[in-house]
Each structure stands twice: as structure tokens, then as C-alpha cells.
Amino acid sequence: MINGYKIINQNNEDILFLYIDFNHDFKNSNLFLTIKKFIKNINFKGKKILIVSSGIIIVTIFINPIEIENLGQMSSYNYITKIIIHDFNNNNLIDYEINIENSNIKEKGNIFGNKQKNSVNKKTSVKQNIKTLNQNNEIIVTLYRKNGNILKIKLEDYIIGLVGAQIPASFNIDALKAQAVISRTYALKNIQENKKLKDTTSYQNYKDISQLRSNWGKNFNKYYEKIKQAVNSTKGKVIIYNNKYINPLFHLISNGKTEDSINILGYNIPYLKSVDSSLDKKVKTFENKIYLSIEEFCNLLKLDIQEPITYEINHNKSGRVRNIIINNKIYTGIEFRKLLKLRSTDFSININDNDVIITTHGYGHGIGMSQYGANEMAKLGYNYIQILKHYYTGVSI
Questions:
Q1: Among 341, 256, 219, 326, residue whose Cα is nearest residue 292
Q2: Cα gap 173→237, rounded to integer Å
Q3: Percent with pLDDT over 90 in the chain
Q4: Which residues pair with 288 in a beta bridge?
Q5: How does DSSP assign 156-170, residue by residue?
Q6: Based on C-alpha coordinates, what's the Rg of the chain?
Q7: Residue-level pLDDT at 39
Q8: pTM tops 0.70, yes or no
Q9: What ranges make up the beta strands (E) of the chain?
Q10: Which of 7-16, 114-123, 182-191 has the lowest mean pLDDT?
């Protein structure tokens, strides 16, 4: 159950970090007796223990070290003076405090079960309480890389690697700050939901310093310091809706409007609504054309090449394609984009004797923040909070 430990001195006080297996069945085990024996074996003389699981501090225990010298009865918990449970699964992100007052903890009920006992008092309200800390009071995260490496790194260093991988470093500083807050929110949301942090496109792309140096070449120092500034200046900032971390989806370029979540995800998310992003139209790569032969087009869509091509396109309110009917076959805009590897679902088709020309506007699924739109807003003087509140409806930073 206890996988490791570390003793850190903060303000002349020794603090014990105990790393435990989150999957262990707390309800059917004597966690506190195990801890008591462990801290006696390592001769810990401090008064504070932080229980860490999956990169998160879940419990803080305050102890009387004098009582540790004598284990006493196997059922005795009298060495514990106070417990704080950091309830990161609670919708309101509430810490619960239990004052032991030198009584047997069993009399207070199962603290890992029903938290409505009289012995439990709400201590804090809408505050982020995911804290796996090092000696400098910095949050540490675990990153599972696609090359098989597992890294323990500071959260803010992780965010630098995310921002560096996900948005052009040449962008305005407030666009980079907005991306930093998005990346931090997404990371902490995953940690809160006990999900592993991975560096794949289905999670968040991440590049370490050597990868960033390779990407940026002679501009490495300038870009790294710029992104580091964006991350450090937004430290601790996250995006919240109804006291929960949002799912901060983003894309590269909109078609002039962002997309409503229901059109892509199939269900409504109140903070992921379609909003104006017409500044994207200024971007040089806003429009893109691809050219396919008639044969290539028919093969990709599994159409009979001998039949003349007829089609009908139906759009949704954001101007993207809801569905397209080609030779009596129906494709959703999302299916069509995937089959033809298009940049977006905002497309038009022009067919001549030999070719099919497809013109797209924007790049990406269109939900949430447009990165190029954010950059254009920042150029006009909008700060990162204004940018985020524009793209995510009704949120708090």
C-alpha cells in the first residue's frame, strides 16, 4: 500500500510525504495503523503527514509524535490529532476537517465513507485542492510519454511543454497566456478525474526542452522565455464553470464562428456555444483548396466512378456542413472531412470534367477557443481573460 516516502523540511518543520496505492481498498484495511508502524520504523519525528496518491494529496494527518514511541493496543489511533480530507471528487471542491481530540477515531465513523457525520466540518469552499507538492510548494505531475518514459515534473514546467507544442510561439503574449490557462485546466481536470497524463494528440501534445530546441532552432531562447513568461504570469489560473474545471476544447482556426458542442459531440455543453470569431478570416491560411481527380474522389467515398456525380450540401447555423448527399449516399460533415482528410467541415465543392476542387475555411473541429482568433484578439488589445471568457460562455477564471 505504501509505495514510497519523502521527508521535506519546510519552515524548520519536517513533513512526511507518503505515496500510497490509490486502488487499495481503504474501507477494508487499517490504514492508520499501517501508517503508525511505518513512521515509527523510519523514526519520523515531525507532526504532519501528507498522503499522496496518483499525484494528488488526498489526506493531511497531524500527529503527536510522542504517542508513536509506544504502539499500544492494535486498535489505538490516539496519536492522530487532526485529519483533513481533500475531497477532489466533490463538485464543490471542499476540504473536510476532522478534529480527533484524543479520542478513538473509530467512534467518529468511517472517514472514507459517509462524510455527513457530525465529526466532519467543511473547512474550505470553491478552492482548488489538488496539491502534490515539492519542497518549494510546487505541484508535481506524472507524465506518461509515448516513448515509454514516465516523468515526474513540476506542473508549470509541464504547462510550458504543452504550450510550446500546441500553439505558435510567435503569437501575441496574451494568446499564449490563454493557451497556458487552457492547458493547466485540462491537466488538473484529468488529474482530478484520476486519468493519466499522456503526450498524445488524444490528450495534450507535449514537447520537452530538447524537442522544443529542435523545433525552434536559433529562436529557442527567445520563444522559450516568452512561453515561460506566459505560463508563470498565469500561474494557478484555471477555467471554472459551476465550480468545476471545464473541458477546454480548442482548435487552430475557426470559419468565422466557433461550433456549438452539440453539432460535434452530440450533446450540449453550456460553456461550449457558438460565438463570433470573424477575425480568423484575416489569417492567410483561413482558406485552403485541395484538388482530387474524379477517380480519387470516388475511391475515397466508395462511389461508382461510372456514375455522374450529383450532390447536395446542408449547413448548420455556424456555416459548417451538417451533411452532404452524393449520388444518394449521405455523409455527415464530420465523416466527409475524415474520409477526405479536410481541414474543417466548412467546405464547398466544384466539379469539372477531370477534377474535384474542395475549398475549406478554418482548421479544426471548431469547438472552444480558436487559437488564431485569440491571437487576432490579442493584437487588438484584448487580454487573456477577456479572450477566454469570449470563447467559453459563462465561465470564471
A1: 341
A2: 16
A3: 55
A4: 360
A5: HHHHHHHHHHHS-TT
A6: 27
A7: 83
A8: no
A9: 2-10, 13-20, 48-53, 56-63, 80-86, 95-99, 120-122, 140-144, 150-154, 197-198, 240-241, 244-245, 250-251, 287-293, 311-315, 321-326, 329-332, 347-351, 355-361, 369-370
A10: 114-123
Which amino acid would we find at residue 118? Answer: N
- Give the Cα separation of 185 and 142 in Å (integer): 16
Helix, strand or coil for residue 70? coil
The predicted pLDDT at position 2 comes to 80
Give the chain's mean pLDDT: 83
309 within 8 A of 301, measured Cβ to Cβ? no
246-268 pLDDT, tens per residue? 999 999 999 999 999 999 998 99
Q: By C-alpha distance, which of 268, 292, 308 is closest to 360?
A: 292
**In this structure, what are the phi and psi dihedrals at residue 157, rounded to the nearest 5 degrees?**
-70, -40
Distance of alpha carbon 314 from the chain centroid = 34
The x, y and z cell numbers of residue 230, run together, are 506566459
Return phi, psi of residue 329, to 5°: -100, 135
E strand or H helix at 226: helix 220-233
Give me the sheet containing 287-293, strands edge to edge.
287-293, 355-361, 347-351
Cell numbers 450533446 correspond to: 267
